[in-house]
Amino acid sequence: MVSKKFPGKFNCLGDICEFVTGEAKAAGLDEKEIYAVQLAVDEACTNIIEHAYGGEGKGDIELICKVVNDGMEIVLKDDGEPFDPDLITKPKIGLPLEEVEPRGAGIFLIRKLMDEVIYEFSSGIGTVLKMKKKKRG
Amino acid sequence: MAITTTEYKRCHLVKMDGRIDSASGDELNKVFKSLNEKGNYKIVFDMSGVEFMSSKGYWVLIETQKACKRYNRGELVLANAQEKIITSLDLVGMSHYFKVFNDVVSAVGHF
Question: Domain range spanning residue A20?
Fold first, then answer.
């Protein structure tokens, strides 16, 4: 298990991606699975910065990666406002171009890309997001 | 991250390298908006150097496509996009808003 804290800033997303990629490779995920992890973690961190902290530079994001027998587990922790993903409107698919609005794609992608997604917000401060990506075959 | 713009007779080619995420998406948006503000609505986006694109990038492309297609004045088309990027665009039902070409020559030739 490895963990690292990153400042909640958009220019740290590349470093976060690099960190999680190294662990995904160690877990034996293939190229498609690694991209799924990269994208899910990027979307989750962006949500933390935008929604939990309400902007850049207002807190850290702790990333914990664990290699398990059938893949990889990832935990993201923040100290921002508790973030309930169920309150986010799901993107509507199949709309005419003019009616497409930038809402909810991040959460939608995370749920599509990862095999397990659990949000925990019990203490009133911060959110813990637990995700798992399984190896194929 | 590097973004370049090349003017062709019938369209403009925009090329970006690296990641398109919440850190870099606004820069790309500025380049597209600048082209639109100068009356250029036929655009090829060469994605051969794009290794990653988050939903921030999807919205930049969608907003640019809306501006380009308004009044049938043009279109944004994609070239050389990696399969993993198109697949993730597909997941959120957005890939069908764009014509995707395997090479820049075909994309430029579309206009």
Answer: 2-134
Cα separations in angstroms, B75 against A107, B71, B98? 29, 11, 9
Q: Among B85, B72, B92, which Cα is nearest to B45's? A: B85
Which CATH number covers residue B75? 3.30.750.24
Number of structural domains in chain A: 1
**B93/A94 CB distance under 8 A:** yes
| Widest distance between CA atoms in chain A | 46
Q: Do A97 and B93 touch (CB under 8 A)?
A: no
Q: What integer pLDDT is reported at residue A137 of this predicted model?
A: 61
List of chain A residues whose C-beta atoms are within 8 Å of the C-beta of residue B19: 13-14, 17
Q: What is the mean pLDDT of residues B54-72?
A: 97
Q: What is the pTM of this model?
A: 0.95
Report the number of distinct structural domains present in chain B: 1
> Do residues A8 and A60 lie in contact, with contact meaning Cβ atoms separated by under 8 Å?
yes
CB spacing of A100 vs B97 below 8 angstroms: yes
B residues 50..69 contacting A (CB < 8 A): 52, 54-56, 58-59, 62-63, 65-66, 69
Query: Is pLDDT of A30 > 70?
Result: yes
What does the pLDDT look like over B27-36, one tens digit per residue?
A: 999 999 999 9
Q: Which residues of chain B does A38 touch, with a Cβ-Cβ cutoff of 8 Å?
A: 52
Nearest to A13 by CA among B64, B58, B1: B1
- Mean pLDDT calculated for residue range A20-43: 97
